[in-house]
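FW: tagging you since you asked about this chain on Friday. Here's the raw sequence from the shared folder, copied in full. Didn't touch anything.
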Amino acid sequence: MNNQIDSLIMTVMADKQGPGGAFMVAQKGKIIYQKAFGKANLELGNNLTTESVFQLGSMTKQFTAVAVLLLEQQGKLKVSDHISKYIPDYPGGDKITIHHLLTHTSGVKDFTKMKALAEIAQKEMTPKMMVDFFKDEPVDFAPGERFEYNNSGYVLLGYMIEQVSGEVYADFIRQHIFVPLGMEHSYYASDRQVIYNRAYGYQKKEHGYVNKTAISFSVPFASGALMSTLGDLLKWQNALSQNKLLNANETTKAFSRYKLNNGEPVNYGYGWHIKELSGLTVRAHGGSIFGFKSMGIYVPGEDIYVVALTNCDCNSPTLLAENITKLIITGTVKSK
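HL: got it, structure written out here
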């Protein structure tokens, strides 16, 4: 099966001298496949390895959602709370709940769709400055009326984590998630900090590869600013499966499908898409940030976890991760 996975990956990662990706398949908490393809740094010619540190983009939302549930578990908030309880001056905050933010059903304007984003993309922003940036924009719909993927909601969640815990978001994630789980190669992203085994991000233009567009990580913040490795993400998934961080009740909340006001189902829990793949329910989430794309898929029924991390936003790992998952599912089902 390893050869089949290799050939699936090599059809997408054909350029061995270009940026590439790192891939992992785990079953029952143990790695059954792990390999890296392509270069970590084109200037130096360094190869990517299975220990390379990648930016996760929106896979960050999993960590933000679990941080919120940790605070609920500690009795410091409830997901049914209105956001006005924590941000009193937020327009319409008495109608928007934390649940709405977690499930992308708040109707708040997504800051990534605002034309003014270019003006702040490279500025150092505080969480409050980020919230102020989009809070007066007209809402797209009333809370609970629709599902529309939304980065602003997770910026608001990061801000509330700080308000409730009294800790900076990056410190909260490190102290309450990374440190307890031994995720020693996971970070709040930085272009200045020396990060060993860093994968450098690239974009592809007509004339070839270029270094990624620089942004201030204070802009994506709790919606997309974390970095990690294959090995650390396996520690993360195992901790979720074994209720090491969250109790069974809070874990169920993270992975439940919710409904809109009209009763229509939403295929999203708290920080994960909940969908079907080869007839099985899976929990999946990807990420995209300048120079990087990521995808993680977990199949609870088979305890299979597939992760694909790439260091060029020209290589989308979504379909690749799904095809690898289908291959493993088919093999697993056959072997039973």
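FW: Residues 174 and 180 are 9 Å apart (CA to CA).
HL: agreed, and The chain has a mean pLDDT of 95.
FW: great, closing this out.
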